[in-house]
Amino acid sequence: MEIRHLKYITEIMRHNSFTKAAEALHITQPTISKMIKNLENELNIEVFARDGKQIKLTNAGEAIVKHAGPILQLFDGMMTEINDLTYLHKGSIRIGLPPMAGSRFFPEVLKRFQEQYPGISIKMVEDGARKIEESLSDGTLDVGVVLGPVDEEMFDTFRLVEDRLKVIMHPAHKLAQRSQIELVDLAHERFILFSSDFALHDRIINECRAIGYDPHIVYESSQWDFIGEMVGADLGIAMLPDTICRVLDPDKLRAVSLVNPIIPWELVMAWRKEGYLSLAAREWIAFTKKIFNERV
């Protein structure tokens, strides 16, 4: 058994597809199938139960997947540390960015970082803050931008942005001319939320439940600009950080301050306390911290 066998099996289960796993690994589907078959012959076991098109693990396959994650994490850490010792200021970083943070705050940061460290390659993963936090926990990402607060026992962090949510609505909405809106005023509104991979999804729902109602959710999206367009089409109301509201078209929607309660939106850069952090990742953390401190 080789490291690549563990990578292949893990990717197959991650994508629930031999074909998609092969694409992610930049190999052909016959190659990945042949490698799995060779492994099964070597160990005299079956890794996958052949059940039509559905991919299921055998008991032996489950045992392999159970141990594959920690082994691959240790292997990646070893290779990263070796590369650091060999190539100063070279290597790669896996960074997770939520859509709002990526588009609003990081294009210029990324440009300046690449100008200063042209030897470091960056793999960008755009996802919701909750999914990014999970990926940081399992070692899939090195650093990521998440919604604070986070588990301080698991992660080190520094603050990037401190903001608060506003309510956005169509200009003709009955509440659009108010200077402030209380959360209770929205009890009978149609809500447009971020999808469940985003920390704001549950945060807004929980805040509504805390004052006695479940929000009526009509749409969910992973893109803040599309949420803005749906609100502009009078399909419902939404909540976005003030920083984002400032770039929306005021002719298409209104942004009104939310009070009682105020819902904070704090972005932090996070990375695991445990495990090896590459030199490239440490450079990224120091670089972005300096830039965001300058912006305060």
From TrEMBL:
The similarity comment for this entry is: Belongs to the LysR transcriptional regulatory family.
Q: Which UniProt keywords apply?
A: DNA-binding, Transcription, Transcription regulation
Record keyword Disulfide bond present: no
InterPro entries under this entry?
HTH-type_LysR_regulators, LysR_HTH_N, LysR_subst-bd, WH-like_DNA-bd_sf, WH_DNA-bd_sf
Please give the organism: Paenibacillus radicis
> What residue stretches are annotated with the HTH lysR-type domain?
1-58
| Keyword Nucleotide-binding applies | no
Q: Which domain of life is it from?
A: Bacteria
This protein is called what? LysR family transcriptional regulator
